[in-house]
Specification:
Layout: H1 33-45, H2 59-70, H3 73-76, H4 82-109, H5 114-119, H6 123-131, E1 139-140, H7 143-153, H8 163-186, H9 198-215, H10 217-221, H11 232-241, H12 248-270, H13 275-296, H14 328-357, H15 363-378, E2 386-387, H16 389-397, H17 404-420, H18 429-440, H19 446-455, H20 457-472, H21 475-495, E3 499-504, E4 511-513, E5 526-531, H22 540-562, E6 569-573
Parallel strand pairs: 5-6
Antiparallel strand pairs: 1-2, 3-4, 3-5
Helix pairs in contact: 4-13, 4-16, 4-17, 4-18, 6-15, 6-17, 7-14, 8-14, 8-15, 9-18, 9-20, 9-21, 12-13, 12-18, 14-15, 14-16, 19-20, 20-21
Length: 582
């Protein structure tokens, strides 16, 4: 509410203003403590009021609405048509061509057998198609979650010396990630992930993308003995201390395919209609490199290959889940961190494309869908999955209409698992490294970082801390620092609310910030302040001190000009403040 002073025209040195009608501010209707608590809980945990659709409905209709709420496929499935299927089958086959090479690559990034990446591109998309509410989200392994899981588990267990235990811990971590994610959705606690601000995510993703890319130097240079650490300095030190292991054949092949992949990515970005060029490039690279290795027996000349992969569909893995032993704390922590990161990425991607197509995505339902997807995946030899931005962008550009595109992708991966696995035996690791670098380089968003610098310097500091923390410490510590700074900023905003001095815009009864509006004028004898945040116990002392300082500064400024202050009234604009009736 703009403050008004109706009697200013009685003062000879004040601006002439028309008299205004005064409206008295009254307290809200009295409510009991139970009513207040009920309202507060409802607004906190059920802001979307999911039960409103059941009001006034028959028992049969309520059952149908409940089933559609839990399984969104029942909502759009009955109206599915052949026309929609034609679009979905094209987009599904397109993202499958991207998901197969990326799945293999990301599994290696997580220090898991390559076949696990394909398993994770088969079962989770089927689960999401039934439970998910996004039409564009393409589900599968992602680079950042793969990196975090591999680096955290490798701190205690070696993937080379004890691969079985490492695989068991990966599946168990995926189970805990899924339980955590679905619990957030069921308990309506999705607002917790909002502490990962956009600035935090931009810095974190950029730092992680650089670390992921540097890790691929092992494959691109043909290094055998490479560091297990994730920091910038240890990785670069390892690279230059093992120059004798560099293989010119590997470097040549890696450079050629990396340039090819980056070029096709550039084409896809500049001309979205040619999305199929960048989408099909990874699979084409895998096919060409495999043929080259097979034809020239390149594995005998220093180029490492994947080797023989197991044929068949996902074997059950519930007997590999470990809920006891000395590594229980590690898998819970790994599941928590990877769960938060993958959930944040999946929901952000889903909301982005939903906004483009003007439909809504229910955040809590998405959490439940992604969580249950990972719980089921942990029992079917899959590791943590979510909606990947690169695949979802391709899915969107390819014209996906519904989640059936995920089903088409899963069926394509199933055919690959059953019949095409021997073809990947001679696929070189260097090409997988090039595919990973091409995929993660898009996570470095320099224009967004510059925009944050222009808007909020403190947010830029948070972003920079996340970026540098990931680069020089570790992925987990960089994320922890960034989240800590974000929470600290929120506490500062609560305990140190912004106060500004208002002035009158001549010829109107409008009052605005003197620093933002040059035409706004002070009114002699009046100090008009706006408190731009709710008042609570944490900031009352600060506000008392700050308002007193405003008065002192005003009187000092007036005293310098007129040798005597004529301040008579202090008016507080309390528009941003809340009031609860007792």
């Amino acid at each position: 509410m703009d403050p008004s002073v109706s009697n200013l025209h009685h003062h000879p040195h004040c601006i002439e203003m028309m008299p205004q009608e005064v409206h008295q501010v009254v307290l809200p209707p009295p409510r009991t403590t139970v009513q207040k608590l009920k309202t507060r809980l409802k607004e906190t945990f059920f802001p979307d009021d999911p039960l409103r659709q059941f009001k006034g409905q028959s028992l049969r209709k309520r059952f149908i609405l409940g089933a559609q709420y839990v399984f969104p496929i029942l909502q759009w499935g009955p109206n599915y048509s052949l026309k929609l299927f034609k679009s979905d089958i094209v987009s599904g086959l397109t993202i499958a061509s991207l998901a197969i090479p990326q799945g293999i690559s990301y599994a290696k990034l997580a220090n898991l057998p390559p076949i696990v990446g394909l398993y994770s591109s088969f079962v989770p998309p089927l689960v999401y198609a039934v439970l998910g509410s996004s039409r564009d989200l393409a589900v599968g392994p992602v680079s950042i979650a793969s990196l975090i899981m591999g680096s955290m588990l490798r701190q205690e267990v070696s993937p080379t010396k004890d691969p079985t235990l490492f695989l068991q811990l990966a599946f168990t971590s995926t189970f805990f990630a899924g339980v955590f994610q679905s619990s957030l959705g069921i308990l309506r606690l999705g607002f917790i992930i909002d502490f990962l601000s956009k600035a935090t995510l931009i810095g974190f993703m950029a730092g992680a993308a650089i670390i992921v890319s540097l890790q691929q130097l092992k494959s691109l240079l043909g290094i055998v003995h490479f560091t297990n650490e994730m920091g910038l300095i240890p990785v670069l030190t390892s690279v230059f201390h093992t120059t004798r292991e560099w293989s010119w054949q590997t470097i040549l092949m890696g450079f050629c395919f990396l340039v090819f992949l980056l070029f096709t990515r550039h084409i896809g970005m500049k001309k979205p209609k040619l999305f199929w060029v960048s989408a099909g490039a990874p699979l084409l690279s895998v096919i060409l490199s495999t043929l080259l290795v097979f034809a020239f027996k390149a594995q005998r000349h220093g180029i490492s290959v994947i080797g023989k992969l197991q044929e068949g569909l996902n074997p059950p893995s519930w007997n590999m889940l470990h809920f006891h032993g000395s590594h229980l704390g590690l898998v819970i922590k790994t599941g928590l961190v990877t769960g938060i990161i993958s959930l944040t990425e999946g929901i952000a991607v889903g909301r982005t494309f939903a906004a483009l197509k003007k439909y809504q995505v229910d955040g809590n339902k998405e959490m439940i869908a992604i969580g249950l997807m990972n719980v089921v995946g942990s029992s079917t030899s899959c590791y943590v999955t979510t909606g990947a931005f690169s695949r979802s962008a391709v899915n969107h550009n390819a014209g996906a209409k519904t989640a059936v595109s995920n089903i088409v992708m899963a069926v394509t991966v199933m055919v690959t698992l059953l019949f095409l696995m021997p073809l990947f035996q001679y696929t070189p690791n260097v090409v997988l490294g090039a595919i990973i670098i091409t995929a993660v380089i898009g996570l470095i968003d320099i224009p967004a970082a510059y925009l944050i610098w222009k808007i909020d310097k403190f947010d830029f500091l948070v972003m920079l801390c996340a970026f540098l923390g990931v680069l020089f410490l570790s992925v987990q510590e960089g994320l922890a620092i960034a989240v800590g700074l974000s929470i600290f900023k929120i506490l500062l905003q609560v305990t140190r609310p912004k106060t500004v001095m208002l002035g009158n815009i001549p010829g109107t009864d409008i009052f605005r910030n003197l620093h933002h509006y040059k035409e706004a004028m002070k009114i002699p004898g009046f100090l008009i302040l706006s408190v731009e945040a709710p008042i609570n116990f944490a900031n009352t002392t600060y506000l008392n001190e700050r308002i007193s300082r405003w008065i002192e500064e005003y009187e000092a400024e007036e005293g310098e000009i007129k040798k005597q202050s004529n301040l008579k009234f202090v008016i507080l604009d309390m528009s941003a403040c809340t009031c609860e009736s007792s």
